[in-house]
What we know:
- By secondary structure, the chain is α+β, with helices and mostly antiparallel strands.
- The chain has helices spanning 40-58, 91-112, 115-120, 122-138, 141-149, 154-179, 185-193, 199-219, 221-227, 230-233, 249-252, 264-267, 277-280, 301-313, 325-330, 334-340, 344-366; strands spanning 3-7, 21-26, 63-64, 67-68, 70-73, 78-81, 84-86, 244-247, 320-323, 370-376, 383-384, 390-400, 406-413, 419-420, 425-428, 433-442, 450-460, 467-476.
- Helix 4 packs antiparallel against helix 6 (154-179).
Amino acid sequence: xxxxxxxxxxxxxxxxxxxxxxxxxxxxxxxxxxxxxxxxxxxxxxxxxxxxxxxxxxxxxxxxxxxxxxxxxxxxxxxxxxxxxxxxxxxxxxxxxxxxxxxxxxxxxxxxxxxxxxxxxxxxxxxxxxxxxxxxxxxxxxxxxxxxxxxxxxxxxxxxxxxxxxxxxxxxxxxxxxxxxxxxxxxxxxxxxxxxxxxxxxxxxxxxxxxxxxxxxxxxxxxxxxxxxxxxxxxxxxxxxxxxxxxxxxxxxxxxxxxxxxxxxxxxxxxxxxxxxxxxxxxxxxxxxxxxxxxxxxxxxxxxxxxxxxxxxxxxxxxxxxxxxxxxxxxxxxxxxxxxxxxxxxxxxxxxxxxxxxxxxxxxxxxxxxxxxxxxxxxxxxxxxxxxxxxxxxxxxxxxxxxxxxxxxxxxxxxxxxxxxxxxxxxxxxxxxxxxxxxxxxxxxxxxxxxxxxxxxxxxxxxxxxxxxxxxxxxxxx
Length: 478
């Protein structure tokens, strides 16, 4: 239904009282009934669906060192990623991953357009799954259109209820799996079966289930066209050498229907038979024959549909294909377009992305699984003890970032005669944080009054020897 507003600024033609003018502000979009299509790119899309969903639903069930392989434990403030144990102090690695993801998106978009959108984006993947369920329950495009236009009946109610029931179950399963990345999924399963889920767990399961149900079941192309910002700024990353879905207008026009045996040249027609299948299979409802549009997600469904028609009528395939604007204008072959992909923009993106990936990999490889914070005792900065020794007291917070019990040896250095008079070793359980009080003494007259630099060295005594050095200050009173 159109939403309309009223204005009273215009005058009637007779010069009387201002008349009401109805102005249409919004127009509801038409429902899109995407037709099922089979072909090379359809197979690639379903391969992406299977790969992404096996990874998503399977990873939480994998075990590593007797615990969940991938777990973001917000309550314990640590994350497990296979052999890595990360803490909030390791936030820099998440930043690095986000930068890599952004640069990879820029690189892939510059080379091959919106392949992420068409094949691996969660919105595309779940829409594909929900549409498959819809096809199985309600039938293909024509059957769904007849069902929606038909009068109410028990058969119609049964089909609609079955479809929404299957959508709901799949959406809740998706929400449950998502929460399983933050709460151990086996524990989550036991709580679910016992009907004793906590309020927050219940909320997030239903929240993400509802988001999946709404986005993939109802909003579909609306998310890609109006909610996702990528469609809006993609033009800044496209150029005439970006691979996009293109329609060969020089070969296809003028379009028109004809018999299979007719000679299109004699009729003055191009290769396009104007069957409109490319529009019927499009998940966003656009006509690719009108040129590149921001709604196009590069899924290749129109290519599969057109190739099937070309094969039936005996014409060469490729009326609609992946190509570039320069490639279409200059008649380049595939090898020429691949060579043109190695242009300065792509090389710069590739160089920066490679450098960041290497730097992040080296940083993770050299990462020391031990973190130490030195906190000075604020109650007594310095004090004089037996035999005139000057003593400072510190509190060390030692974080064991490994999954085994570690025993650490503690030493101090930095000033002549400086010695540790408290316990020199401490045992820390796996992924535990322990605090210990440390007393450090300096002989009388060994240093002038004031603040002097020193350092603590903490090193593991086990087989996997590792350690860190932390700076501190030793105070000598006047």
